[in-house]
Amino acid sequence: MNIIKNLFILMSMFASFAAGPSEVLFLIQSEESKYYHQIGPNLREDLIKESFILPPEYRINVHMINTLFSNNNTNNNYNPGEWAILNVIHQLVMQQKYHQLINDNTRWIAFCAHNTHIKLNKLMTELSKENHKQIQYFGYTLHDQEPTIVHHFAFFENPDWFPYPMLQAGVIFSKALFERIANILPYHYQHRHLCNSNSNQQHSTHSEFSIDAAHELARFIYDNVQIIEETATKHTLTKVLKNDNLSLPVNTKQASAAASSDTSKIIENVVEKRYLMKMRKIIMKKAAYICPKAKWSGSLDNNKCAMHAQPSYTMQCIPIKREEVYFAVKTCSKYYNDRLLVIQNTWAQYAKHIKYFSDVADVKVPTIDTGVPNADTGHCTKTLAILQLALKDIEQINRQKQQYWPANQANIIRWLFLTDDDTLLSFLLFFLPLIMHSVSGVCQILGCFNSSHEIYLGERYGYRLHALDGFNYITGGGGIAFSLPTLRLIINHCKCPSPSAPDDMILGSCLHSLQLRTVHSMRFHQARPHDYAPELLQLEAPISFHKFWQLDPLQVYQKWFLTADQNMLTEEIAFKLEKGATTFSLKSRRILSETKTLTLNHMKVPVVAVATLHHNNKRHIDL
Prior knowledge:
alpha/beta, Spore Coat Polysaccharide Biosynthesis Protein SpsA, Chain A, six-stranded mixed sheet, 27 strands, about 35% helix
């Protein structure tokens, strides 16, 4: 008996060894820019380092998504849909990389953003308690407060019940669900293509636009993945038996309970157990160990979190100056007395360079006539005209600055920010090393990027990402930031198919054909504040909101942006007047007849030297 028992134990150990350790596949999404490249690989490296101290029964496999579909990161193999999980899964299957990443030991697949924080050992411990054979996925669940356009008004009657993941905190799939999705997607996209190519058939119920990858993922799973559940039920059946001699023993046993007027028959009540087959849809589960955002360092709430989101601006980018941004506001004559008044009384007063481009010139606003009649939709021709006029104006302003201050390149315009006349902005939330904190705004985020590069920045949408002709574009409502090299690229190469073509999509398609990639920031918003989950707005300080529909735009500005914009001016003045940081104007330098010295950071610097000094390690001096 002991021999058999020991043999069974040995067989179990061998089976466990043959099966190998439980493996989790981590797929990390990161943007294509040097700023984000410094963040995403850090997460990958941290996971690999932490994996060295994992117990032997755990193993991880970590990949950056943007390297899976590219060859040495060349544009030739660039996949515009690498930010959308559904498209990533589809491409893994179509490019035959699925089985290279997922093996017999894979139990879970975790999708993370570049700003997801992971405590690997705790996560592996928590996952060991879950059933990887079940068709399920979990993370931190978000809910819509009301029907929203960014989710195509899904579940219009009651949107709050439907959960979808906060991707920045990470989302985890069981291998069973991941395989089910991978098997469904090719047929799903093939059916969509057939519907779109056949005018006699109705179009697919899913939009060709990709807006929110998290909600679209949850909606796809809910609509397409179902499991069969068996529900045990008890049924009472009535059997009528013939009262004959052959069945006499049975009939005699039941006869006392029989109730029939026919003495030749006996009624028997039999209880049977049946199983009802029921199709159940899959919705996301909330995991207590996946959190929206850390409270603070050492917080007790953080101890339970194996994964949580963290702001992506923690690199403390040094902001550009207000003088370096040119704002081009797209408007038309019918909005002069409402929308423009809001803009001029909110963020526009903090802009150094702002121009209003319209279909009619009006010196009272003032506006600049683009020479293009206003269209009800699209505005493509008008937008290209605005970009041309704005670039011409920028170059003229820069020439004048260089003429008067030839040695000072610090204040020339380096960026164009295109915005609608119903877009609310946090124009500038200033960063000062003296204060040792960084807050966000247009100038702060632009400081993360090199203006000499071709930068195309804002909130990214996608169109037909599943197809060969798919592309990304920056949606216009949230505002679009162009570096001047990008602006020149557009003017030289992009054309409108019609005046009313959608301007932001045409720009995106054109730049995609020129192999220029979008740079996405979740701080830009195409819609209103209540169109987004509160957790997302709390994670990263918003830069913009769009639409004045069913809200008071002044109240929105006061709630989200006013205090910070006012603090900007206060901090800017305090910085210049701070003890030891003396500022000389051009006029005051001309008055000086001889070289004098000033105290700067306890160093005596000649004024003539200061005239060419624009930066040091702790100060920026305007001269």
